[in-house]
Specification:
With 502 residues, the chain is mainly alpha-helical. The chain has 25 helices and no strands. Helix 1 packs antiparallel against helix 2 and helix 12 runs antiparallel to helix 13. The chain is flat, with a radius of gyration of 26 Å.
Length: 502
């Protein structure tokens, strides 16, 4: 047994006996008290032994720290002075659960009680991030800018400058955001985010309409990072810009150059995506024969998002001579769907139909999201504090609860299937109204935020789902969109709109 395995097993043993001890104490509480007093005593127990409770997104640790805070307030309701470590610990638990106001209270307390503590920049960064994650971008920008100005020699100060640019972009100020990214590159040539700052500068200059400057920064980035992943990602940015601007010849050339590169982890694209974008460019350039051959070269399969899109285009442009090739491809996919059919159930049928249909949602799309979000586990909880079948965060759920007809919402209700489906469907309905006839944008918004998606839709310019998906700026969100859409296509093949097996 390795030392690390032995250490991990030791930790697991401690956790086992700790949990057993807590259960025994809880059993004693149940024996000695009435049901009415059990809840209070249990909460007190977890508060007293908070150091034994797993820290992070667990509901137990959140309840425990809230109990501690109730006991730590003075007569005016203000959090009293704790150690800097304890303020940071409680803030981190709140932040992990997206309880942003409570997290900020502890970061601000540290700054107020310990103004000379070296962790003040860390606390200010926490405040900035909480505003940013809560999409309160003006407050986020103010905090990030303060970090950049007052703590420029620290890592937190560098983060402040970088994310002040990101905040400006989400405030609808792309030109100012681009200048901030360039400022980061200039002031911190060896900064932790120097590679992404270059790539962000390129896309932000595009959004600002400063296209020639974007071309210049593509060249600078490729020169500085020649032979690296950043070089290849800059080339991908060039391909996307050529497509959005309708420069089909240059797009085809960029796609060919990308295809000759090695694809590896860390790249913002894949061989299938590049192959599809080349085929799309040939298609738009009017070269139908080469476009057909290129679409046909995109791998087909139930797990290939771009393969599904390529099949759609092949069916649209094939002449009678080429039709058998299209049909043979479709038959292969249908056979794959039949093999995996049992992995695509339709639980919670009535709840989904009741929530989706009045909101003009396809119930199969809701199913596709649930399958990706929680694999139909109602008690699922993510590291980001999302709960339930549709993995809603409390701040998002509270936003849509009034129009969904849910009052006095509590975190525990997000684990109730019917509540999760109703709230999630309300959210999806509003996203569908923002991005009609583009389910990719709806899925991207659900994962990455509608403010970001609005920018990606505008940046893509082309009315093609694959081009939009190529512009999705977060790796996680891009992968999420493709998985949801793959699920959706399979559900449409297997089920009617009433979720009855065909």
């Amino acid at each position: 047994m390795s030392k690390s395995r032995g250490f991990n097993r030791g930790i697991q043993t401690v956790k086992f006996w700790t949990c057993l001890l807590l259960l025994l104490i809880l059993a004693a509480i149940f024996r000695e008290n009435t049901i009415a007093t059990v809840a209070a005593d249990t909460e007190s127990l977890f508060a007293r032994f908070h150091y034994l409770v797993p820290q992070g997104t667990s509901d137990v640790s959140l309840a425990a720290v809230r109990k501690l805070d109730r006991d730590a307030r003075n007569a005016r309701g203000t959090i009293t002075r704790l150690s800097p470590d304890e303020h940071l610990r409680r803030a981190s638990i709140y932040q992990a659960n997206r309880a942003f106001d409570e997290a900020r209270e502890h970061w601000q307390a540290l700054m107020n009680y310990y103004p000379d503590d070296p962790r003040v920049p860390e606390a200010l960064l926490g405040i900035a991030r909480s505003y940013y994650q809560g999409r309160r971008y003006y407050e986020a920008y103010s905090a990030y800018d303060r970090l950049a100005r007052n703590y420029s020699s620290t890592k937190e100060g560098r983060e402040g400058l970088n994310f002040s640019a990101a905040s400006l972009l989400r405030m609808g100020k792309p030109s100012e955001a681009a200048d901030r990214y360039i400022e980061y590159i200039t002031h911190f040539p060896d900064g932790e985010r120097i590679d992404t700052a270059h790539l962000n500068a390129i896309d932000t200059l595009r959004e600002a309409g400063r296209l020639q400057e974007a071309v210049t920064w593509i060249a600078r980035t490729r020169q500085r990072f020649a032979g690296t992943l950043t070089d290849t990602n800059a080339l991908f940015a060039q391909l996307r810009m050529n497509i959005s601007e309708g420069n089909w010849t240059r797009a085809i050339s960029a796609a060919d150059e990308l295809s000759r590169r090695g694809f590896q982890k860390g790249l913002a694209t894949t061989p299938a995506e590049v192959a599809y974008l080349k085929a799309y460019s040939l298609d738009r350039a009017g070269n139908r024969d080469d476009a057909f051959a290129s679409y046909l070269a995109v791998p087909a399969g139930i797990d290939s998002y771009y393969g599904w899109l390529a099949s759609d285009r092949l069916a649209a442009i094939a002449d009678a001579k080429k039709r058998p090739l299209v049909e043979e491809r479709a038959n292969r996919i249908n056979s794959q769907v039949a093999v995996v059919a049992d992995r695509y159930p339709a639980p919670y049928r009535q709840s989904i139909i009741s929530a989706a249909k009045p909101r003009n949602l396809d119930p199969r799309f809701v199913l596709a999201l649930i399958r990706q979000e929680s694999v139909f586990r109602p008690l699922a909880k993510s590291p980001a504090g999302a709960r339930g079948l549709l993995q809603l965060t409390m701040d998002a759920a509270q936003k849509y609860a009034p129009t969904a007809g849910v009052s006095n919402l509590q975190e525990s209700q997000l684990y109730q299937p019917e509540t999760s489906i109703r709230l999630g469907s309300e959210y999806l309905a509003q996203l569908s109204a923002m991005f009609p006839n583009l389910p990719e944008a709806v899925a991207a918004s659900y994962n990455g935020g509608e403010d970001n998606v609005g920018r990606w839709v505008t940046r893509a310019k082309q009315k093609d789902p694959g081009v939009f998906t190529s512009e999705v700026g977060f790796d996680e969100t891009k992968a999420y969109v493709q998985k949801v859409m793959n699920n959706y296509r399979i559900y449409r093949q297997l089920y009617t709109a009433d979720l009855v097996r065909k």
